[in-house]
Amino acid sequence: MEIRPILSALRHNLTGALLIATQVALTLAIISNSASVIRERLAVSQRDSGVDAESRILTQRPILFSQIDLANLIQTDLDALRAIPGVESVTVTNQVPMGRSGWSSTFATERVPTAPNQSAGLYFDGGRLLETFGLKLVEGRGFRDDEIVNIDPKVQNPPPTGVLLTRRLAEALFPGQSQFVGRVFYQGNTPDSEELRVIGVIERFTTPWAQTGPGNEYAVVFPARYLNPFNHYVVRAAPGAEAQVRKAMEEALEKNEPGRVSNGQYSIQEMRDRRYRGERALAWLLVSVTVFLLGVTASGIVGMASLWVNLRRKQIGVRRALGATRGDIVRYFLTENLIITSAGIAVGVLAAWGLNGVLMSELSVPRLPLDYLLSGVLLMLLLGVVAVLGPALRAAKLSPALATRSV
Amino acid sequence: MLQMDGVQKIYRTDLVQTYALRSLSLRVAEGEFVAVTGPSGSGKTTFLNIAGLLETFEAGTYRLDGEDVSKLSDHARSRLRNVKIGFIFQSFNLIPDLNVYDNVDVPLRYRGMAGSERKRRITEALERVGLASRHQHLPSQLSGGQQQRVAIARALAGSPRILLADEPTGNLDSLMAREVMNMLEEINAQGTTIVMVTHDPELARRVHRNIHVMDGQVSDLDQRLAA
């Protein structure tokens, strides 16, 4: 390999080589970080919500303008929904996972303002919530029907004390513990905070916001129907019955109280799609930027290599006259490009770490995984070889007789 | 050493075809120093290109050092060029980005020679042309005569069986031209066959034999010029 003479020749063509190396370095820094962010965003969008068969869990939120007895209306709505053929289970709740708006509260293990507290989604189980969402209990039990109470916001009635909470929240509230049933904690951390007792632990149940980080699995479930006009009815349809249940659901609610305004009907899968639209858009944007950058870099290498081939036509002819085979000429250009690309990669690796440091501190993106950086390095090497191959093959086809021509 | 019989070379474009060589036949014996002369466009350079395996030809046969090279592949021609032929060009054709040492090294690297052997040959060749002390200079830092001496060193380093020179003094003043010619005579005296294309009648007079090419044919074979 004639690396030393190539290095020597490159010293005399430094500007072009530096341009390509810089382009490679920047591309490597950007694409490796982009790939890492894309993976992280897509992983976030595919997180387990704890709800099984998301496409079969249908929600509808009719706004109850009726001034009649809300408790009675909710009960008759639930009965009507339960009677629909293809419905496996029904519940009413105040919010749904990934619904993007809902209730939260802070929870602590001490009634002391300085005590550490955790913010968590606050769900109401109007009966059969675990069954309808397909949530898995890992400890304790779910609510019995007789434990479900009506909470009227117009009346100051005490909330129920026995609650369910997610395992992640339990672990955050009671660090180092593995058994949580029977443990006491508080809604709030002031002296008059309500006391709550754990009766069951749910493996996983994401919040309406499905925020990034462990907080997305912090939830507390109360056994209650909240008597306000904005509840969500949730129906679990049998496999294959989703379409007929959707239609029947709307008709049943309309029939039970005509003229109600509904803000639409969604499956949890559709909620997921809406919630993570931004993540997917960002991922696609970054994929586009990555492809664009790779294209620009490849074009740069092709352009520079083509220019060098044209400028060195005579030199290539001389090399061929002196005994270089076509393979020698191709190898020369590949080696030259490999040297430039490798220099760019060396700088690019440092730039990628640097950029990642900035992104970590400013945008809370995760640390750049080493395998992503290595993949980026391999990709750039491959890109360099592929991009220079065309000009190198053209160079190899030049006639050795160019050596004896005056131009 | 070099034997061509009825070699024909045609350059074709979409519209015209030009006969650069028309049934050219000649022989150059081992150890000869031959000048190829002729007016511009007579086919001298085409002959040199074919003799140096830089170009193929349409008809005829060509034997180099006893081997029929008419049908060799591009790869085999490159290898043969590298081992058996040394070139000296009118415009020197040194690689401008490489220093003197690396320029002389170019054909040796293509031969896949070991580093120590290359170093020995390069040093010897540069000493022979009196430029050992300039081995780190770039071509642009040398005079025309010095550049041509580097080119001669590059041609000699591979110990070729035949040296093909294309107007080797064409870009040099008379003093330097004489110096280069003296060097070629010295190389020939040591046994290397030389075929030199030249316009210069004075140089042509100094060689063993002059071959005059006209309209792509040898018109004056085996004519010995008076010194």
UniProtKB/TrEMBL annotation, chain A:
Please state every residue range assigned to the domain named MacB-like periplasmic core. 62-251
Which cellular components does GO assign to this protein?
plasma membrane
Domain ABC3 transporter permease C-terminal, chain residue ranges per copy = 288-400
Membrane-crossing ranges are 281-311, 332-353, 373-393
* UniProt-annotated location(s): Cell membrane
Which organism is this entry from?
Stagnimonas aquatica
Tagged with keyword Disulfide bond: no
| Protein name from the UniProt record | FtsX-like permease family protein
Q: How the protein sits in the membrane?
A: Multi-pass membrane protein
Q: Which UniProt keywords apply?
A: Cell membrane, Membrane, Transmembrane, Transmembrane helix
- A molecular-function term among this protein's GO annotations: transmembrane transporter activity
Family indicated by similarity: Belongs to the ABC-4 integral membrane protein family.
From TrEMBL, chain B:
Kindly give the Pfam families that the UniProt entry links to this protein.
ABC_tran (PF00005)
Q: Which PROSITE patterns match?
A: ABC_TRANSPORTER_1, ABC_TRANSPORTER_2
| A single cellular component GO annotation | transmembrane transporter complex
Q: Which InterPro entries match?
A: AAA+_ATPase, ABC_transporter-like_ATP-bd, ABC_transporter-like_CS, ABC_transpr_LolD-like, MacB-like_ATP-bd, P-loop_NTPase
RNA-binding found in the keyword field: no
Q: What is this protein called?
A: ABC transporter ATP-binding protein
Q: Which PANTHER family match?
A: ABC TRANSPORTER ATP-BINDING PROTEIN YTRE, IMPORT ATP-BINDING PROTEIN
On whether tRNA processing is a keyword of this UniProt record, the answer is no
What UniProt keywords apply to this chain's record, in alphabetical order?
Answer: ATP-binding, Nucleotide-binding, Transport
SMART domains xref list: AAA
The organism is Stagnimonas aquatica
Q: Give the UniProt family note.
A: Belongs to the ABC transporter superfamily. Macrolide exporter (TC 3.A.1.122) family.
ABC transporter domain spans which residues? 2-226
MF (Gene Ontology): ATP binding; ATP hydrolysis activity; transmembrane transporter activity
| SUPFAM superfamilies attached to this UniProt entry | P-loop containing nucleoside triphosphate hydrolases
